[in-house]
Amino acid sequence: MVEIENLSLSYENSPKVLKDIYLNVKKGECVLFTGKSGSGKSSIINSINR
Fold first, then answer.
1. How far apart (Å, rounded) are the C-alpha atoms in residues 2 and 28?
2. Confidence of residue 50 (pLDDT cuts 50, 70, 90)
3. Is 41 helix (H, G, I), strand (E, B) or coil?
4. Which site among 9, 27, 40, 45 is 20 to 30 Å from 18 CA-CA?
5. Alpha-carbon distance 31 to 12, whole Å?
6. pTM for the predicted model, two decimal places
7. Does 3 have pLDDT greater than 90?
8. Among 10, 11, 20, 17, which residue's Cα sits nearest to residue 40?
9. Cα dihedral angle (5, 11, 33, 7), rounded to 10 degrees?
10. How far apart are CA 12 and CA 28, in angstroms?
11. Within a 13 Å sphere around the CA of 6, how many CA atoms are in the beta-carbon half?
12. What does the DSSP 8-state code read for residue 48?
């Protein structure tokens, strides 16, 4: 299970990449992140995987 509450992320000298993200993935669920380049997909995944 993955649960994220109020995730915000910014990189040095830049505006927020992610703001107030909430995500709840239950056991057995499959989630696909889609979007344009630079929309924050990899940032969310990197935050989960640390």
1. 11
2. confident
3. helix
4. 27
5. 29
6. 0.72
7. yes
8. 17
9. 0
10. 36
11. 0
12. H
Write the pLDDT tens digit of every residue in 12-34: 888 888 999 999 999 999 999 99
Query: How crowded is the C-beta side of 40, counted as CA atoms within 13 Å?
Result: 15
Largest CA distance in the chain: 38
**Cα torsion angle, 43, 29, 34, 6, sign:** negative
Look at the block and give the residue holding tokens 């992610």: 18
Residue 26 tokens, joined: 């239950």
CA 40 to chain centre: 7
Q: For residues 31 and 50, which has the higher predicted lDDT (pLDDT)?
A: 31
